[in-house]
Amino acid sequence: MTLVQVVGIGLDGAAGLTDAVRQVVERATLLVGSDRHLSYFPNHPASRIILGDFLKAVRDIKHQLAQGDTNSSIVVLVSGDPLFFGLGRLLLEELPREQLVFYPHLSAVQLAFNRVKVAWQDALVISIHGRSLEQLTEALQQGVEKIAVLTDPTNTPKAIARLLMALDLSYSYEFWVCENLGGTKERVQSWPIDAVLLESFAPMNVVILLRQSEPAEPVLDVDTLPLLGLPDTTFASFRDRPGLMTKREVRTLILGELALQPGQIVWDIGAGTGSVSVEIARLCPTSQVYAIEKTAIGSALIERNCRRLQVKNVISIHGTAPEILHHLPTPHRIFIGGSGGNLASILDRCNIQLTMNGIVVLALATLEHLHQVLSWLNTHRWDYRLLQVQLSRSIPVGQLTRFTPLNPVTIVTATRSIGDG
What we know:
This protein is 29% helix and 25% strand.
């Protein structure tokens, strides 16, 4: 049986092959590969098929196999590891599995992480070679710590840098571009994102993105910040859940629904990073904001963000609602961003402690919680209105622009019915 032997090769050409694999290539009667791959063996006597039209090349290989010549030896030259985003997958779809033998070379991703000197067993590898940026966008929004990106002439390092800047993440990535890996013109360098936009890179490159820890106390020029709607990047966030924050656009709607006034007591239940508390405190410096958060790391983040934004009128409360609420002063406004599974009992406590003209605003991400809230409000004869929020932000896609959605949120604004206690 004639075998099709698929040989991975690097930019160092034949010199990078082991002796055993080099002998496989030397015995070939038919060499299949790109112009670059075939150029590594200029004096090889075998017949050649240039891999331009893949389907035509496969037909030629099938025709060769049909000859049944046991003396023939077909070698297909590919880059790196044939079964790692390579031609091997397509060959397995077109040719009998039992007639294929693979000889992998080091993959570009393996070389890239070793050049950067970062362990990569937990890295996410994404190919945007001829693909959309959707998977990369989701990974960046989720704050994946280590990402390797296989690029193409359209989805270049510059395109990735533009995407990162457009996403306005609350954390940053170290941006490595690894060019011509294994070749004589290899260049591996970390770049500031704005510098990537000004640089030209070799067509053969891999981008490595490494999520960075925030400095302990980043310096912010608070005088240059907007009065309303602080960018998400303003706030320190959870290291393990970097996207867990009330997003800027939703936050501004919540602030409007709260109908804030000076000199009020405000509860922020399930405060998370404290982004809503900080916005309220900056808008109403004579008000007192109680940011209630059940996790210790969340309470620490709230305090850290208050220091960053030079806010003095937020009190971070580490405790579980509703138990901790008994000890707080009577609120004029309550925002519930998280309930820890205690939504009904939290509303019961709000019903007892809220001032007669007070307002409760909830941000709900699930239908189950919305149903639970509406059931409670109807049972207790509260007035309410709903605002369904479905927002999308623009992001660049190569030279074009598309929208990427934020998670849908339902904002419930509730008040006691007149005459009800």
